[in-house]
TrEMBL record:
Keywords: Signal. The keyword Glycosyltransferase does not apply. It comes from Noviherbaspirillum saxi. PANTHER family: BLR3518 PROTEIN. It comes from the Bacteria. This is Uncharacterized protein.
Length: 141
């Protein structure tokens, strides 16, 4: 009987603490951008994501035409520089990563990448690594 009561108490304790533990867990999300024409919408999604879930760790991985908004002087369709929202999100701990394969293929000097971004050897390999090794969820806006 004592064993049964202990089991019931343990189940009750777990049912009360499990949702709390899940809510306290850090969420990790990788946003994949391969087309800078969607960068403004993606940056808004990321801002909204952080507003709804401030503890989320977000990494933005760019490749192909998706790197363009992370280059010096890049502007959105309204003529506003991307640098400002990128700086604001970086201040909120969002990490930006740029594919070196794309830089090399397009003959773009690394010095043109915004200082808030890090160059990684391969964008697709970085996305896979984040998902497999670090448990990141994948989003493609």
């Amino acid at each position: 009987m004592i064993s049964l009561l202990r089991s019931i108490a343990l189940v009750l304790l777990l049912s009360v603490t499990a949702p709390t533990l899940a809510a306290d867990r850090e969420h990790k999300v990788v946003y994949h951008i391969n087309d800078s024409t969607h960068a403004s919408a993606a940056l808004n999604n990321i801002r909204n994501h952080l507003n709804a879930s401030p503890k989320t760790r977000i990494v933005v991985v760019t490749l192909g035409a998706g790197i363009d908004f992370l280059l010096e002087g890049a502007k959105n369709q309204n003529g506003n520089p991307y640098e400002i929202p990128v700086q604001e999100l970086a201040a909120r701990q969002v990490e930006f990563r740029v594919c070196n394969n794309t830089l090399e293929t397009r003959k773009i000097d690394k010095s043109l990448v915004l200082p808030e971004a890090t160059v990684v050897p391969s964008g697709v390999a970085e996305i896979a690594r984040l998902q497999i090794e670090e448990g990141f969820a994948y989003l493609k806006p």
